[in-house]
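Retry 2 of 3 after timeout on previous attempt. Resubmitting structure tokens to design endpoint.
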């Protein structure tokens, strides 16, 4: 087996900065980024700045994050009291810490009901680049026996989600993983990819097409923002094109839903249009 060349010292310096040292970003992610043609064209002087910019976009800490230490302590206190309303209030509080899930709060229950009306009620879910989506579980209307696989690059976030799963008596199936480099292989009834496909495309142009082919689910549910974070730019047609391009010749049927500022594409991978 061929041994890997050690990462340059400047990479370790970046990963040890306060912004990244707690996240435990997988080494395979760094190697994948540095192997991209764009990176290969850069000088050694230019690469550190380029990698910092890429990591900033991937980690997206500007979207918000709870304090996991204090939030875990609060979670234990809330769930030990066994008060359903307080448990939901806690989940809302966590969902509100991240821009992606905060924008969904006004239509949270309708969001999942609308999706599952198309896909059917799943007994297993794969939530890719999950962020804090799993904290919406109380509004999903799913059985406690559901197998909820969640994946994210942020290690403290994954630990936090698994702690939550244990509190609500779900199997702790959240995994610290780069879904582009190491896509999940388990079969699930529905795969979620919420508000992430456009950011994946920024990381590596065209990568969604490859990733979506590898997803082992009859249903892939992709959501994308219908406008920019500032609300100044309409993104509907741009993101419809991203979905069409990512499906390509597979020609899977799509059911499109619209909730607030979120476009949802329910993609039926089990069949193709004739």
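Retry 2 succeeded. Sequence:
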């Amino acid at each position: 087996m061929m041994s890997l060349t050690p990462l340059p010292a400047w990479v370790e310096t970046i990963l040890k900065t306060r912004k990244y040292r707690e996240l435990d970003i997988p080494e395979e992610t760094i190697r994948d980024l540095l192997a991209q043609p764009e990176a290969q064209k850069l000088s050694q002087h230019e690469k550190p700045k380029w990698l910092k910019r890429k990591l900033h976009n991937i980690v997206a800490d500007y979207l918000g994050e709870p304090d996991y230490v204090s939030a875990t302590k609060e979670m234990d206190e809330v769930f030990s009291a066994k008060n359903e309303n307080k448990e939901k209030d806690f989940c809302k509080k966590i969902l509100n810490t991240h821009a992606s899930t905060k924008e969904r709060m006004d239509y949270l229950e309708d969001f999942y009901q609308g999706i599952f009306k198309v896909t059917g009620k799943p007994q297993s879910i794969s939530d890719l680049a999950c962020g804090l989506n799993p904290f919406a579980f109380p509004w999903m209307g799913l059985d406690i026996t559901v197998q909820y696989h969640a994946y994210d690059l942020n290690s403290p976030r994954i630990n936090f989600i698994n702690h939550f799963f244990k509190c609500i008596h779900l199997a702790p199936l959240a995994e610290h993983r780069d879904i582009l480099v190491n896509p999940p292989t388990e079969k699930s009834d529905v795969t979620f990819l919420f508000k992430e496909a456009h950011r994946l495309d920024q990381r590596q142009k065209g990568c969604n097409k490859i990733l979506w082919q590898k997803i082992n689910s009859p249903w892939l549910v992709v959501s994308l923002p219908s406008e920019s974070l500032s609300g100044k730019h309409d993104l509907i047609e741009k993101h419809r094109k991203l979905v069409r391009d990512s499906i390509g010749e597979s020609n899977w049927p799509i059911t499109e839903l619209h909730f607030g500022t979120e476009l949802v594409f329910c993609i039926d991978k089990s069949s193709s249009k004739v």
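Attempt log closed. Residues 223 and 264 are 4 Å apart (CA to CA).
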